[in-house]
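TICKET #2291
ISSUE: user wants both folds in one file
ATTACHMENT 1:
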Amino acid sequence: MELRKIAPDRVEEVRPSLNTLGSISVLKDDELIAYGALNVFAEAVLVVRPETTEFARVKAIRSLLNMATDACRQLSIAELHTFTKDERFAKFLEMYGFKTISEKALSLTLR
């Protein structure tokens, strides 16, 4: 862990790894005010043609999830995320180990 003084009341903690690009602690008089980390994560984007049979859709999704999880493991990525508004699909994904982590997902477009 490397600490660099950025300003009189701010210290940056640099801990790069495959999943964490870095983190920052903001201190004032040696008291932690805030902490932030920039993490990399994988998102599974699953698009399924609704006209196909349920059997074919389930088989296709299983294949996509297997490929995605294998790729994440090979890259040492700790988590795989997917986002859906469809409660039925969310329940289906829970059968494969996905867990609901938040009621809201927020995104900031940078370009």
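ATTACHMENT 2:
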Amino acid sequence: MGKKKKIGNEDPLISMLNTASKRDLIELLKEITEDNLSVRRSCIDSLKGKVTLSPSVHDSAESSAALTLWYEIEPGQFVGHIGTVGYGKLTPEVLWVKSHEELLLKDR
């Protein structure tokens, strides 16, 4: 037997997202992520694994994720600890931040 559709119990946000146009969803995400870098980085990381990107867009997404990470932390808070126990694998974003440390600190 197929799944029974829940009547009246569906999350209203999910209902609205299912009926929203692509343009509306893009505008909503732009508005939400504009002032929240953590959410922006999370969206980029999630979408990188779900959509096919050209190499240039992929590189741009990697850079954007690294920059949002950079602005989420205090100067020296993270960069000084790269490679220490607990940070695990050095991701492209972490390596990018480390390689641009001097320039980024100068601009703060």
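RESOLUTION: both attachments delivered.
EXTRA DETAIL ON ATTACHMENT 2: Helices lie at 12-19, 22-34, 37-48, 55-72, 92-99, 101-107.
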